[in-house]
Amino acid sequence: GDSVTQMEGPVTLSEEAFLTINCTYTATGYPSLFWYVQYPGEGLQLLLKATKADDKGSNKGFEATYRKETTSFHLEKGSVQVSDSAVYFCALSREESGGSNYKLTFGKGTLLTVNP
Amino acid sequence: DTGVSQNPRHKITKRGQNVTFRCDPISEHNRLYWYRQTLGQGPEFLTYFQNEAQLEKSRLLSDRFSAERPKGSFSTLEIQRTEQGDSAMYLCASSLQGFYLGYTFGSGTRLTVV
Questions:
Q1: Which site among B103, B104, B107, B110 would you substitute to test the A interface, given the most A Cβ atoms closer than 10 Å to its Cβ?
Q2: Chain B interface with A: residues with Cβ < 8 Å
Q3: Residue B80, CB half-sphere, CA atoms under 13 Å: how many?
Q4: Segment B79-107, tens digit of pLDDT
Q5: What pLDDT is stored for residue A96 in this prediction?
């Protein structure tokens, strides 16, 4: 079945450091890929997405590129801020029979703490 | 619209009791989803509705769990005869058909079974 593997956390960085959170996936066909972020006490928010190979999703300084050859979707940010401290989830959605994507498969999440 | 609303935010119950959670989706969204998130894990799909029809239920959703979405608006998730293993965060999300717009998640209901 479908699965998503993220790098183990927690990740602790100083402000303005470079961030990479690795994500690889296993799925048949051509899944869509997502990064969600969960701030303390809040629900998950969509951070960025990519729907086909070589697409780059970007938002709020974060980027991730859909690499089909390596089945990866690594999250990067050039200069993190204290406000980026949160749990980050990589996820995929695969088109089901009938042509409808609806179900997300998530990784376990990576806790990021950014210190001033 | 204030987004997806879930109530209650927290629920503590004794083992064997029944609990019910409510989710109010974004009004124009016709799809509604329930996920369960345990500590240190990502959310796991439980079930989803398109309008009032429940179109899929995960194997995680045992016979003690039931979800409804009357009239295609709000949804309820009921757990009967709760067990300690049911302790988790229950997340609701909604979306418009045409998934690529993405889900909007609620803040979740944290259930603790003692």
A1: B103
A2: 4, 31, 33, 35, 40-45, 48, 56, 91, 93, 95, 97, 99-100, 102-108
A3: 6
A4: 999 999 999 999 999 988 765 557 899 99
A5: 63
Alpha-carbon distance of B92 to B24, in angstroms, equals 9
Query: ω before A10 within 30° of 0 (cis)?
Result: yes
Residue A97 binned pLDDT confidence (cut-offs 50, 70, 90): low
Q: Compute the nearest-CA separation of A98 from chain B (Å).
A: 12
Residue B101 is given by DSSP the state G
Question: DSSP code of B70?
Answer: G
Q: Mean pLDDT in chain B?
A: 91
Alpha carbon distance B76, B24 (integer Å): 9
- Which whole-number Å values give the CA distances from B104 to A1, B36, B62, B63, B64, in the listed order? 25, 15, 25, 27, 27
End-to-end distance of chain B based on CA atoms, in angstroms? Answer: 36
B77 to B45, B48, B54, B112: CA distances (angstroms) = 13, 11, 12, 15
What is the arithmetic mean of pLDDT over A52-68?
Answer: 96
The DSSP output letter for A68 is: T
Q: Does residue A114 contact residue A15 with C-beta atoms inside 8 Å?
A: yes
Phi/psi of residue A82, nearest 5 degrees: -55, -35
Is A89–B99 a contact, with Cβ atoms under 8 angstroms apart?
Answer: no
